[in-house]
Each structure stands twice: as structure tokens, then as C-alpha cells.
Amino acid sequence: MSISPNSDEFWMQQAILEAQSCLQAQTNPKSPIQNLKSQDVPIGAVCVFENRIVGRGFNRREQDGDPTAHAEVLALRAAAQEMGDRHLKNVTLYVTLEPCPMCAGALWLARISRLVFGAWDARAGACGSLFDIPRDPRLNHRLQVRGGVLREECAQLLEEFFTARREEAK
User: Fold this and answer.
1) pLDDT in tens, 69-93
2) Which of 49, 65, 133, 155 could bridge 104 with an S-S bond, Cβ 3.0-4.6 Å?
């Protein structure tokens, strides 16, 4: 069954490819990252405007030594540069894991129209699980949120990463 490029599932697959790129960047033999303890969690994001990707990113916190280098923030930065505007109206952000409070705040500040995420994050999710920043009526901008798109595929990447990390720790 083929997935339409006009569907959330199609674009989430692109975000999953970004998450896989995160893993590939870390398994590159030339990479300075040598063990799983210093690897970034495989989360990917893409910003889509008028059926084209205008920004993409994957977690680079460990690689860059930057606590703000989350996939969502990097995708937003790239989209703002591509579009020439910090306000990303009519842009949808697709990300493999529910955004944290920092990223949810960045989505609000960027005026993203819509967020679609894969796996829920009960411990740090700020888009419906622990908090619900994008739909907080006290804020001056709210965005549409759809969670759980290709949830199993997104969660599997994370589960495999953390299983390998636990095995390495033994």
C-alpha cells in the first residue's frame, strides 16, 4: 500500500528518516562519538510548507554539545532561514516524539500552524501528555496538534536505542 504525499503518514516517514540519520551519523567510523552513552537519542523532525520540506533536523545535543539542539529546534531554524521569516505560518512540523516544553515553546514562538508527532512522551511531553502548551488558552497563539501518527514505528526507534544503551551499560 502506497502512502499519499498529501498525508501525515507520508511526512512522518520523512521525520523517521531524519531520526535514522541521527543514528547513522553516530555509527559513522569517522564520528567522534564512540559509545552509546554519548550518542543522541534518535528523534527526527521536518517542517512542511505547501507539500515540500522547508526544514529538517535530528537531535544533535551530544554531537554539538548544545542543550537546545533538539530535532524540532533545528528544523525550525532551517525553515525560518529557508522561508526568510521567523513566523512560520501555514507550516506543519512533523516529529517522531512528542515535543518537550522547550520545543513546544519554540513552536508557539514560531507560530507554527500545526504539529504532528509520532510517539507520546509521558515523562516530558508538552503537547498533551504532561503539559499542553500548544493549546493553552492563555497563550496568544494556538496550533492544531495530532499525536500518535506512525506511533509504533517512532517508538521502535527509541526502544531499540535505549535497549542497546542498557546492554552496553552491562
Assistant:
1) 999 999 999 999 999 999 999 999 9
2) 133
Q: Which three cell numbers stand for residue 165?
A: 544503551
With CA atoms as reference, report the closest residue to 56 among 68, 74, 42. Answer: 74
pLDDT at res. 38 = 57
Copy the grid coordinates of residue 27.
Answer: 555509527
C-alpha cell at 146: 495530532
Q: Is the pLDDT of residue 10 over 60?
A: yes
- Distance (Å, whole) CA 106 – CA 104: 5
So which residues are the catalytic ones?
Answer: 72
User: For residue 112, which of 147, 72, 52 has the smallest C-alpha distance?
Assistant: 72
Is 111:84 a contact under the CB 8 Å cutoff? no
Q: Strands 144-146, 92-97: parallel, antiparallel or unpaired by DSSP?
A: unpaired
Q: Are 167 and 135 in contact (CB under 8 A)?
A: no
Q: Is the dihedral of CA 151, 47, 109, 103 positive or negative?
A: positive
Residue 21 neighbours by CB under 8 Å, 6+ apart: 44, 58
